[in-house]
Design a protein that fits this description.
This protein is of the alpha+beta class and 184 residues long. It contains three helices and eight strands; from the N terminus they run βββββαββαβα.
């Protein structure tokens, strides 16, 4: 296994350890392309690797440093993300759904849109998700995070007994990073 860097990834700033191939070393602040369980994403290196034989498994792989061409692609993806945000807000209003769209995240692979919402998981979301997936030719996911922020991500969340990471009240529940959360 390569070295493990601490990298911040995604709209919710999920922080994890990501492996590199071989002995690659990235300094703090380096923007990198990473493969996560969600797909290809862009991350920021927070900590370069440290010499520690007891390092846990990685949450993904750093593929490479971000290039100028990648920055151009990010600009194009941002336009698509903004259009998807406006379209989703319009449809939520038209359908009279009791939810609020907080953010839309487009993964670097260009094929996945993640809609971050506040409110209950209403049945109409499935139809809206299918509609948006067809419109944007993407996989679409809705992420609810208000309940996780207030209730945590599992029994005894954020405590020693819960075996979580202990930072749920400030972000890990939102970022799906807590070890007590069941992964799909």
């Amino acid at each position: 296994m390569g070295q493990l860097h601490v990298v911040r990834v995604g709209a919710n700033a999920s922080i994890g350890r990501y492996a590199t191939a071989g002995a690659r070393h990235y300094e703090r602040g380096t923007r990198v392309v990473v493969r996560t369980e969600r797909g290809l994403e862009v991350g920021d290196v927070l900590l370069p690797p440290t010499e520690n034989a007891d390092q846990p498994d990685s949450e993904g792989t750093i593929l490479r440093r971000l290039t100028v061409e990648d920055e151009l692609l990010l600009a194009r993806l941002s336009q698509n993300r903004n259009a998807a945000f406006r379209a989703c807000v319009r449809r939520i209003d038209e359908l009279g759904l009791p939810i609020a769209l907080v953010d839309v995240e487009q993964l670097f692979d260009g094929t996945t849109l993640v809609f971050h919402i506040l409110g209950p998981q209403v049945p109409e979301l499935d139809a809206l998700m299918e509609e948006l997936a067809e419109t944007y030719e993407s996989k679409v996911q809705f992420r609810q995070f208000a309940a996780a922020v207030t209730a945590g991500c599992g029994p005894d969340c954020g405590t020693e007994e819960g075996a979580g990471c202990g930072s749920c009240s400030t972000g890990c529940a939102v970022a799906d990073a807590c070890s007590t959360r069941k992964r799909s």
